[in-house]
Amino acid sequence: MNNVSLVILAAGMGSRYGGLKQIDTVGNNGESIIDFTIYDAIKAGFKKVYLIIRKEHESAFEESLVKHIRPFVEVEYVFQDKDDLPEGFKCPEGREKPWGTTHALLACRHQVKEPFMICNADDYYGKDAFTSMYNYLTQSIDDQNYSMVGYRLRNTLSDSGTVSRGVCQIEDGKLKDVVEIAKIKRDGDQIVYLTKDEKWEVLPYESLVSMNFWGFTPKIFELAEKQFLEFLHRDLDGNPMKCEHVIPTMIGETLNKGLYTLHVLSSENTWFGVTYQEDKPYVVSQFKQFKENGVYPFNLWEVK
Hints:
Layout (H helix, E strand, L loop, with lengths): L4 E5 L23 H12 L3 E6 L4 H12 L4 E6 L21 H6 L9 E5 L2 E2 L2 H13 L5 E8 L10 E9 L2 E14 L2 E5 L5 E4 L4 E9 L3 H16 L11 H8 L6 E7 L4 E2 L6 H13 L12
Helix pairs in contact: 1-4, 5-6
């Protein structure tokens, strides 16, 4: 099966970053992280990209990214609209925040008809992750067998502040549970997180975490729709302006129902991204070094 696609989550608001970080320049030839993501995906074998964005950002994405990559890959926009809610629900007046990555995933339900991988726009995953996922999607994927690429917690932290991660429980190479944990940070030689009781607890250094790098078939939309509906019934009234539902939570809620198996493809690569504006200088230096070492060409999108 070679008809597989890349879906990129790029509709977030970047409140902690202070701007549209999905297309902020980090490369020394004007690239954003998403340029390197798509470049790595094309090299791995992907032929089509779906970009999940907000409609008002279409012209910005077209000018800074999409017009450069169209000669190399098929591109289709998917628009995440906060008013796109199940029957009986209405977006609260004054809400600006999208409904999270489960809702973004659901935005694809009318367009994505083939097996696909989905990942964040503002995370750098490393070349191996795309090759591993492409191989899985073309050789092993079906409606009962999904996949994810997991990263070591120690390789996914920011020096600029706390982060949220889907902490995974793995057994025989399969995901048994994933719990979204917020406010994780380094504390000396330990990694800690802030509990609901406002206490700092230790997390294992080598914990495997989800960085939103998943492989699915379109069957996942049925599961996501059900969990998103349950979320709205449960959480909307209590926190109408900010509540959201994310893919790791959706997976955690459905794994124990026996509807599918989720195979873990681990990566020892060091993740990096731009959670905070203060992260940017490090990211810029890493891509500059990659180019100097020949990992990437100076001009990713040179038409030869």
